[in-house]
Amino acid sequence: MNLSFILDVALGLIFIYLILSLLASEIQELIATVFQWRAEHLRKSIEIFLAGDLENSESPSVIRLSNSIYSNPLLKNINQQAKGFLVTLPRKATWAIGKFYRSVVTPRSTNPKSETTFGLSKHSGPSYIPADIFATTLLETLQLPVLVHKLTESRLVKFKDERLGEIQEILDKLQQQTNVDENFVKFINNAKEEFKETQAEFEDIILNFKQGKANMISCIVRMGESIERYIETFATQGYDNPLHNKAVRQIKFLRKDVFEDTERAITLGGLQPNIYEVVQSVNRGSAIYQELEEAFYDKESAAYQNMKSMIDELPPSVVENLAVLAKRAQGRIQKTQSGIHALREELNYAFDSSMERASGVYKRNAKGVAILIGFTLAVISNADAFHMASRLSKDSALRETIVYNSGAILMQNPDKSAVDIQTLRNQANQVLNDVSLPLGWTDVNLNQQIGSSTQSQDIIPGFRFINIIAGWFVSGIAIAMGAPFWFDLLGKIVNVRNAGKPPASSAQNQEEN
After folding, report:
1. pLDDT of amino acid 108
2. Using an 8 Å Cβ cutoff, are 464 and 450 in contact?
3. Is the CA virtual torsion 288, 294, 300, 303 positive or negative?
4. How far is CA 347 from the centre of its chain?
5. Which of 204, 224, 426, 476 has its CA 20 to 30 A from that of 252?
């Protein structure tokens, strides 16, 4: 017995387990597709992410929030489905099997009859959700962009009233100090009438912001420009006296102090809600929530009722989790970054991290299923590891055929890291036409294995039966290792086996000499 013989036997076993692993992976993929394990595991992982732990993930409020997220158009676009009767017929059969399986394995007694794992009247869900899409969907479901815009609108209105009030106060004081000069009083009255135009411009600016036609920065810039135009009119048409000049200086100082630096105006005015305020907007006991309620002047409006209903049904765990994310994001917020944008980024990080852990859980569960499939396949195919090793050691023709076909498969897939399982499966199917593997419950195989056949009435000796079971057990574990593992090992063994062979060119030169 030499090294080449041992490597050939090892190659034979590896090749057989590669074939069986490919079959096992196909079976597992079929089961996962029919029962929608990936989509179901993703849905459950999202519920745990929202609830903060496994115990609270089954609460009705968490499930309703998850249903709302899955009903968002962004997620609906991910879960694309084919149309047409013939195309959807197999899909409907899969839905029926999956629904029955989930009703038995993971029933939800708190849900109405029309509600499935994926929401009301939904038969399936996406198997993967990008972090940015989930973060955007969650924020939209919580209506945070709408709430932040409403909060900003309320603060912008207060900012507008305060600035206009300061200018109005300057004009009123000037009017009180010049009530002797009738011409100057007339001028002040005209100035106050012209100031109404500035007030109207401010109202238009607020209206544009409410309608989404202008952002915060453009509103502040336009307000500053409006005051600048008023200053030019007020300064050039007034009297040259100390009171008038003082009023001009006061208005100019106001304009410079507030509107010279747009970023400073937004910060000092608190116009851009920070990440803490964004999170507290959905916290019923916070001052920000009370401020938000006051911003809705019409308590009977649909917008207010939707906001109220959403926050009342929001799981407390979601508010707590958002508060934790806000604290984490606080150190990464840039000066010009809005709170809603910072929260979205933090949600991206948190969701990615959570899905990595969920992926690890799914892989562990999948490995357990792979072991069960491996054991079952080993018994069904009678893949006795010890018998296969014995056959390979005695049958030189079988060893040579397997070694040759193994090399052919490796030649067709030079880049092992980029090999496609489906391609590998097709290549293996072609090879099986030329190779008769020592598998199955055929009379020939059984006679070689235990000295009996399917028609024989002989009782199998106990030690042989134990030996067969042990062989199945070894094969079951080996099959569960997966096709990528065996394909990679096959390449390494072939490289070791061929390492001692001289290159073709060198051998040819030796023959010529």
Report:
1. 54
2. yes
3. negative
4. 10
5. 204
- Considering only CA atoms, which of 482, 463, 460 is closest in space to residue 471? 463
- In the chain, the amino acid numbered 283 is N
Read off φ and ψ for residue 119, nearest 5 degrees: 120, -175
Evaluate whether 74 touches 137 at the Cβ level (below 8 Å): yes
Helix or strand holding residue 18 (H, E):
helix 3-35
Looking at residue 55, the DSSP 8-state letter turns out to be: G
| Amino acid residing at 410 | L
Dist CA 98 CA 103 (whole Å): 9
Query: For the chain, what are the domain ranges?
Result: 3-24+362-504, 35-125, 144-268
From the list 351, 273, 292, 282, the residue with the least C-alpha distance to 323 is 282
Taking each helix axis as running N to C, give the angle between helix 182-210 and helix 216-236, from 0 to 180 degrees, rounded to the nearest 10. 170
- HSE, CB side, 13 Å, CA atoms: give it for residue 350: 23
Does the pTM of the predicted model rise above 0.85? no
Residues in the chain: 513
Q: Does 166 have pLDDT greater than 90? A: yes
Burial of residue 68, with CB atoms counted within 10 A of its CB: 0-12 exposed, 13-18 middle, 19 or more buried: middle
Q: According to the CATH classification, is domain 144-268 in 3.90.550? A: no
CA-to-CA distance for 303 and 69, rounded, in angstroms? 19
Provide the residue type at 115 as one letter. Answer: E
The per-residue pLDDT of the chain, averaged, comes to 80
> Helix count (H) and strand count (E) of the chain?
23, 2
Cβ atoms within 10 Å of 510's Cβ, excluding its own: 9
DSSP bridge pairs for 116: 119
Strand partners, 119: 116
The DSSP code for 115 is: E
CA atoms within 13 A on the CB side of 290: 3
Tokens found for residue 446: 């059984």
In this structure, how many other beta carbons lie within 10 angstroms of the beta carbon of residue 332?
A: 12
The 3-state DSSP class for residue 119 equals: strand
* β-strand partners of 120: 115
219 within 8 A of 156, measured Cβ to Cβ = yes
SS3 state at 438: coil
- Summarize pLDDT for 74-109 with one digit per residue, the tens: 887 776 555 555 555 566 666 566 666 566 566 554
